[in-house]
Amino acid sequence: MSPRAGLTRERVVAAAAELADEIGFDKLTLSALARRVGVKDPSLYVHVRNLHDLRVRVALLASAELNDRIGAAVAGRSGKDALVAFANAYRGYVLEYPERYAATQIRMDPAEIAGEPALVRSIELTTAVLRGYGLGESEGLDAGRLLRSTFHGFATLEAGGGFAHSRGTDESWTRILDALHTALSEWPAY
């Protein structure tokens, strides 16, 4: 991007996500981003309020990207096929963009992000997959937490090199998805 040419909030956030991919999300600063886009630090305040605002916007961008992948993967699928497609899209995104994905884990003020399309879509996609298992609202909430915890935990450990074992991770992943399918199929009603 040439300095100042066409600088918009969307381009600033996209550049921040790319920079996070290169240097690590925890190392993302306004100064580093300003250098990246060829402006002085104060020029960024036209597009973002502060570093936290920038990080939230990167998180929302990453959430939207992740949801786009998941949405495309699960379209027209149900039951175990939808679960596996959802899980594989999730894992693939984390492995491809571990630093951008790390942004999605930051604490965000619920009032600030209420109704945010990326977060609403995430809930809708999870609910759609769980609907194929006949889970009601409260069961779906618990099951959704199980899925998120499992997908997040496995993928971030894998992306960080946390599975240094001779057995490949794909075999474990397949067995985990089989176990999740069984758990969802036999979910206890309360």
Give the key terms.
9 helices, mainly alpha, single chain, 68% helix, 190 residues, globular
List strands and helices in order, with pairings.
Layout: H1 9-23, H2 30-37, H3 51-74, H4 79-96, H5 98-103, H6 110-113, H7 117-131, H8 137-159, H9 169-185
Helix pairs in contact: 1-2, 1-3, 3-4, 3-7, 4-7, 4-8, 7-8, 8-9
| Average pLDDT, all residues | 93
Number of E-type strands: 0
Instruction: Please state the overall shape, judged from the principal axes of the Cα atoms.
Output: globular
**String of helices and strands:** HHHHHHHHH
Distance between the termini: 55 Å
Amount of beta strand:
under 5%
Rg of Cα set: 19 Å
**Uncertain spans:** none
The total of helices stands at: 9
Structural class label:
mainly alpha
Summarize, please.
With 190 residues, the protein is an all-alpha fold.
Describe this structure in words.
The chain is mainly α and 190 residues long. The protein has helices at 9-23, 30-37, 51-74, 79-96, 98-103, 110-113, 117-131, 137-159, 169-185. Helix 1 crosses helix 3, helix 3 packs antiparallel against helix 4 (79-96) and helix 8 (137-159) runs antiparallel to helix 9. The radius of gyration is 19 Å and the shape is globular. The mean pLDDT is 93.
